[in-house]
Design brief:
homodimer; 358 residues; alpha/beta; six-stranded parallel sheet; three-stranded mixed sheet; 13 helices; globular
Chain lengths: 358, 358
């Protein structure tokens, strides 16, 4: 049985393409009363990007704080705020930010047309109704959230995505100018998400010619961005943006692996953001992903990045146990990495050993 | 101004994936009376593939002859046949064949919901109504027709595609098993369409980081298929299928160039099929695409392929003139290849000179 891979049907790419957003949106305005809701990372309040958001008529911005990983209760609260507004259900939801904001936008779009808490929809194809038209505009590159079928959320019981054919954006706007101002460390952590996607995609049983082709090219771009001394920042931003796009498509056609499973545990229990959690885990996975981890170390040194180390010190047994349960439960990732008999290779004890290295 | 690139939103890929078509279609059956129309290359009549087509209820096959390049009057006639059938407008149109069949399926889908002759819609975004749900299933790889926004048609006045956001397939099924039986020469000519797409995409002003990334990877796959001695036929079929897919996406984000412009003239006037017309033209374009043409010559020799030569002998002045007018009129291709001031580099005389080499 092969899976149908749903990807984003429309893409606008190019430096400055964000400036076309206003015109694009007008075509989507159903009538004079219909409005657009922009979910925007609150770090952009009073920043140049705020002024460029093309608000017209009753359109409005909801500033979203993403100091913590996306949570189901936040999705529910944004959804309720929109539904209870006098404008009602908008003609489109537009997410402007990093992976967390993009995941919020995808989840809110779906939850505007599906009843109950978003925590009920954590899993595969649980939403029954098509969401509101939604547009993704990344301001950080690497997560692949702009093309993925998943809105990753932490709920009361688990960190697991709302995944299905209604989740992907209807349109993405990839404007490399928007990632120019990202802080250095954050840019690196997020960029490494793409690097790690490719390593994991290429090393597992769900690999196929399409996922491999995307991963090879995405990885080549990522290596240019982080290992080539002669690349301009402008070129690097374009390449990082496309690396993220291709890395996300590669994962869509394949699966993530050991690093993401461990990273989910770190985020769930210690609330590390996804990018940095990946880096903390990948940093210690030379036994699994050998040369790719050594190259990662080179990139870290070259860009003088701080990867937190020693985070397991002082954790309680209960915390280790909870992280291990979270990671162990992601059986699709382990299956990809170790094969159908993955349980012979991985146990909660083994997972705790990995965490103790970090 | 950047263009929105519409691509195929859903893809099913894998050896044997065609066998899942029946189940996929049932989800699309609107009610007991709704039916599916399969447009199938008539070379598959009484061949194994015919038995694998999942006909149920009132579903039926229209066998389509593609000895000649797709014509607008054939599109109109298939459309009328379907509309006048007792089943009426189908729930889906499924094209099974090479690029010509895929283009017919795309065009028929659009023409079932837009009035008048398809020749009225040759151009960009001329169709106003969304077409019938349509699925593309290639049995030859290289054209990129499975992902393109264009259904290339020859009409009474010109060879030009119906291009727009309603043209791309809603779903493609990429099953490498289906290209296994393609005749050697045809497989090569069609495969070279992808090779040439990549060369043209990479050499022109509309190149960007996405089109380039697709072209680089597509080209690497194509070179493995046609230059690597140690590849199995099974691997080669997978790679050729993905090369075609990526090559088509590359062109979608960029543009074709000199070879395609000349090739359109050959097809319009002499009715050469697109793949072989490309090969005839590319064979003589070392002055434009240097090393890529020399590698093409190596592939031709290695696979002992016949590329027609001397086709311009015996042509009338009028035929040359008509070919040159067709080619010269494709200004977007020339603009891509030579820049905004392309008309300084290209004239009808120059085009006729190229044709005289062939």
């Amino acid at each position: 049985m092969f899976r149908i891979i749903k990807s984003v049907p429309k893409c606008l790419f190019g430096k400055g393409s964000f400036n076309q957003l206003g015109d694009l949106l007008e075509e989507k305005r159903i009538n004079d009363d219909s409005c657009f809701v922009f979910l925007v990372d609150d770090c952009f309040k009073n920043k140049p990007i705020e002024k460029k958001i093309p608000l017209k008529r009753a359109d409005y911005i909801i500033w979203v704080n993403v100091d913590n990983e996306p949570k189901t209760f936040v999705v529910d609260s944004i959804r309720d705020q929109i539904k209870n507004s006098k404008e009602g259900i908008p003609a489109a939801v537009i997410g402007i930010g990093g992976g967390s904001i993009l995941d919020y936008a995808k989840a809110v779009s779906v939850m505007l047309t599906n009843n109950g808490s978003s925590s009920l929809y954590q899993g595969l194809n649980l939403a029954k109704n098509q969401g509101v038209y939604h547009i993704g505009i990344p301001t950080l590159s690497g997560t692949g959230a702009e093309v993925s079928m998943t809105a990753v959320l932490t709920g009361p019981e688990k960190k697991l995505g709302i995944k299905g054919e209604f989740t992907p954006f209807d349109l993405i706007v990839l404007d490399p100018e928007l990632i120019y101002d990202a802080p250095k460390n954050q840019r690196f952590y997020t960029g490494m998400d793409s690097y790690i996607h490719n390593v994991e995609s290429l090393n597992g049983i769900y690999k196929n010619c399409i996922s491999e082709s995307y991963a090879i090219q995405s990885q080549a771009l990522c290596r240019e961005v982080f290992l080539n001394d002669n690349i301009t920042r402008e070129e690097a931003d374009e390449k990082l943006m496309v690396s993220s796009y291709f890395g996300g498509l590669s994962i869509g056609h394949s699966e993530v692996g050991v690093c993401h499973a461990l990273s989910y545990g770190l985020s769930y229990v210690l609330d590390f953001h996804h990018g940095i959690a990946n880096c903390i885990a990948f940093n210690q996975l030379e036994d699994i992903y050998g040369p790719a981890v050594r190259d990662f170390h080179t990139m870290v040194e070259k860009h003088k990045i701080d990867i937190p180390f020693g985070i397991s010190k002082g954790l309680t047994l209960e915390q280790f146990e909870k992280m291990a349960i979270t990671a162990f439960g992601l059986d699709h990732m382990w299956r990809h990495a170790f094969g159908l008999d993955w349980a012979k290779h991985v146990s909660k004890e083994k997972i705790i050993d990995w965490y103790k290295r970090m």
